[in-house]
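It would be a great kindness if you could assist me with a short task in structural biology. The matter concerns a single protein, recorded as an amino acid sequence and a row of backbone structure tokens. Could you please explain, in whatever detail you think fit, how the structure tokens follow from the sequence? Thank you for your consideration; the sequence and its tokens are set out here:
___
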Amino acid sequence: VRIKEKAMVELLRNQDPDRSLVLVAVEDGRILGSIHAEKREDNRAEFGLFAVDPSLQSRGLGGMLLDAAEAHARDSWEVDEGVMYLLEMREDLYRWYEKRGYRRTGVKVPFPEDQIGAIGIPLVELRFDELINPAL
């Protein structure tokens, strides 16, 4: 869990369509996946809260969500660079993002302390690797 329900509801209610987009894939009332895109002050698009139901992974839904979010950022916000943060322990996901044009920058970002309670007490220090795609 990366975001609590109350925080997600607040994000959806308060999002500025000129700077923020939440896409949710739903089938028969069931959430299958989601992604949040936000236009940053440095004119990059930051993608986060990216998740796909584990039973549906490796079937193309994640790619469709990311494609749609990137297209919105490129076409509506006129940004040409994407940024995201990936838990550094998820080696399996790096290859997927690299195939999509994302590269590690070497920047490490600590996991937000206010969110640690939502996932339990980690056994290792949680950090994110910054990834950028210079050619959305």
